[in-house]
Specification:
The protein is mainly beta. The protein has one domain: Beta Barrel (Maltoporin, Chain A), CATH 2.40.170. It is 10% helix and 54% strand. It contains six helices and 35 strands. Strand 18 and strand 19 form a beta hairpin. The radius of gyration is 25 Å and the shape is globular. The chain starts with a helix and ends with a strand.
Length: 658
């Protein structure tokens, strides 16, 4: 009955949007219809030129519907982050660029997405942990359901497209809360440059060289991070009674992009890193803490490869990607003098091809996707592989010059070591132009996510029947307005998911994965951007949601808060003569309650992150950048477990272009 109920609501929402088609059609005369249709056709032709390698359109995106459309005409809640935005705001990496947007309540084990082996920093959209699909040029980056951006150098990013809401119809498993597509830069004919930069800070150093040619781009860098004697919220009244430290770390990165032809490009990224982490466990004795004999001391080495071959036909409407994603984690426990049990090699491959047919102002996309994911637990000498085949379709019908309806369908057949699955996922989207500057949209879609591929043996004792796949619906409606220098957008959404994955503890105190229960989240998001003149601009955003999990194992089956509820954003940009400045404030409040095994149970404290970035163009080829982070020097929890962002810190960068 519940499945029928969800489908009924989905159809009702779609029909509600379509009902406006008749009214709009009656109100618009034939001449206006032809003119608007012609305008739409010209816009789509311009967008096709951009997608095929021509001049990029800053307010267009391709991820939401697998076809390039203007942001105003896209029936989903979207955010575009350009390379200029990353430079202007001084985002330290791709993770931070995404996390500083409304709708992100991400998990990190330190600053800006820091992770230690499989204690992994991960992007979270709309409060759904491990339910965001991250892609690079359309190639999934998720391994073991962890959405990671670690292997993507910020200097190689052209733009980032964030699409919130269920997106499994077009992209398959793991797009529960949304999908993020990181689109890399392409070599450009007639543009050749070499840029070298050095960065120094009180916690960080970096050296980087970036080369751009007619057909080839290369980015090489090395990073060093300083040791942190106390890296978490530790104390009698704190969430952790383990005093963790982080040792010195190093990362080497390489990114390359080759334009093999005008229609075929090859991209490759490589990262190798190492870092140490340890701590001392304390226990409560009266009104103070005393040391115990329990110590922790780990070293983690991390190796990542990402490669993709992208074909974009200029005339035939064919888009195809062939992708490979690899990660190896090699950890060592200095206390036990042994390798860490969780050491693993993960890899994934994808082949995806789609064909687009233009039928006047209407369009049809048909596609096929093949995915493979494998895990090899080195120390346990166990491995597992999952494969999937999918067919998908998306039909966009322009009923009137003002009203568009899109129907998406996906059938996926998954060969799983635990239990094979056959999944059908529909999506309904409507877009109604209230006027040339304002659009109202409805977006209803079903999402699906498999458990981690190693569930077949990793948690078998605790889950003899196996973990159940997560699935559910997102219902969303919103308005976008763009006129002159003003842009605003607002959306209301409801998520209703089943079999949410989470963690439980066994008798030994070790964590294992379980289906926690149902997940729901009803929320509101709004954002306003104002460009006052060529010098000043401001962005203000806010969000309120209520992410909750219902644990069926509980006696009262109560709904429990699962992530922060309140978000706020203020961003101020300045540019005049040789100076650029940015002030960015992100607030995450009313966070969830957490009861640790070794610490004081409490609500996770609010997070208030204030960053500043200044850029001075000293000459034609020289720039100096000063980024100051956590200006308020707050003790900001980067996750519920008490890991902290860095205190007040800075980075000074000098760059020279040859």
């Amino acid at each position: 009955m519940k499945g029928k109920k969800h489908l009924t609501w989905a159809v009702f929402a779609a029909v509600a949007g379509m009902s406006f088609a008749g009214e709009a059609y009656a109100a618009e005369n034939a001449a206006a219809g032809k003119a608007a249709a012609k305008t739409t056709q010209v816009q789509e032709q311009s967008a096709e030129t951009a997608e095929s390698g021509g001049h990029d359109l800053p307010d267009t995106l391709v991820t939401a519907q697998r076809r390039r459309k203007s942001e105003l005409d896209t029936p989903a809640t979207t955010t575009i982050i350009t390379a200029k935005d990353i430079e202007k705001a001084g985002y330290r990496n791709v993770f931070e660029a995404i996390d500083q947007q409304i709708g992100s309540t991400s998990t990190s084990y330190g600053e800006a997405g820091q992770d230690f082996g499989f204690s992994a920093g991960r992007i979270t959209l709309r409060g759904y942990d491990r339910g965001t699909l991250v892609m690079v040029n359309g190639v999934p980056m998720n391994l073991k359901n962890y959405p990671s951006t670690e292997n993507i150098p910020a200097a190689m990013v052209e733009r980032i497209e964030i699409v919130k809401g269920a997106a499994s119809t077009l992209y398959g498993s793991e797009a529960m809360g949304g999908v993020i597509n990181i689109i890399l830069k392409k070599p450009k004919a007639g543009e050749e440059a070499v840029k070298a930069s050095v960065t120094a800070g009180n916690y960080f150093k970096k050296a980087e060289v970036f080369f751009q040619g007619d057909r080839f781009m290369l980015d090489v860098s090395r990073e060093w991070s300083k040791d942190i004697p106390h890296s978490n919220a530790f104390g009698l009244d704190k969430v952790s009674w383990i005093d963790w430290w982080v040792g010195k770390g190093q990362k080497n990165r390489l990114g390359a992009s080759v334009a093999l032809t005008d229609e075929l490009s090859l991209n490759y990224n490589y990262t190798e890193g190492n870092i140490t982490r340890g701590g001392i466990k304390y226990k409560k004795a009266g009104n103070h803490l005393v040391k115990t004999a329990t110590k922790y001391d780990y070293r983690f080495e991390d190796y990542r490869h990402t490669a993709n071959l992208v074909y974009q036909g200029k005339e035939n409407g064919i888009h195809a990607v062939l992708g490979y994603n690899y990660r190896k984690v090699d950890g060592y426990d200095y206390v036990k003098h042994a390798k860490v049990d969780s050491n693993a090699v993960l890899d994934g491959e994808i082949f995806d091809v789609q064909k687009t047919w233009k039928m006047g102002v209407d369009s049809l996309i048909l596609g096929y996707s093949y995915k493979r994911e494998a895990v090899d637990l080195i120390e346990k000498k166990k491995d597992a592989t999952r494969t999937g085949n999918a067919l998908y379709a998306s039909y966009s019908k322009q009923f009137t010059p003002r009203f568009n309806f899109t129907l998406g369908l996906r059938g996926e057949w998954i060969n799983d070591p635990e239990k094979d699955q056959s999944v059908f996922m529909p999506q309904f989207q409507t877009d109604y132009k209230l006027d040339k500057d304002t659009a109202w949209y409805i977006n209803v879609g079903k999402a699906f996510q498999m458990p981690t591929v190693d569930d077949v043996f990793r948690y078998k004792n605790m889950n003899p029947q196996g973990l159940r796949p997560e699935n559910g619906w997102t219902y969303e409606t919103g308005i976008k307005h763009r006129h002159g220098n003003d842009t605003w957008k607002a959306a209301v959404y409801h998520m209703d998911m089943k079999n949410k994955l989470g963690w439980a503890k066994d008798a030994k105190g070790d964590y294992y994965a379980v289906n926690k229960g149902d997940f729901r989240n009803t929320g509101f998001e709004a954002e306003y951007m104002k460009r006052f003149n060529d010098t000043w601009s401001v962005t203000v955003g806010a969000g309120y949601s209520n992410p909750q999990v219902q644990d069926p194992a509980g006696k009262k089956r109560e709904w429990v808060q699962d992530a922060g509820r309140i978000e706020g954003l203020v961003r101020v940009d300045y540019k005049k003569d040789k100076w650029q400045g940015n002030l960015n404030l992100k607030y995450l409040g009313d966070r969830e309650y957490y009861k640790p095994s070794s610490g004081t149970a409490q609500d996770v404290p609010d997070k208030l992150q204030l960053n500043m970035n200044l850029i001075y163009t000293a000459g034609k080829n020289d720039t100096v950048t000063l980024g100051v982070y956590n200006l308020l020097d707050r003790e900001n929890y980067s996750n519920r477990y008490g890991n902290l962002d860095l205190p007040l810190n800075f980075r000074l960068t000098y760059a020279h272009t040859f």
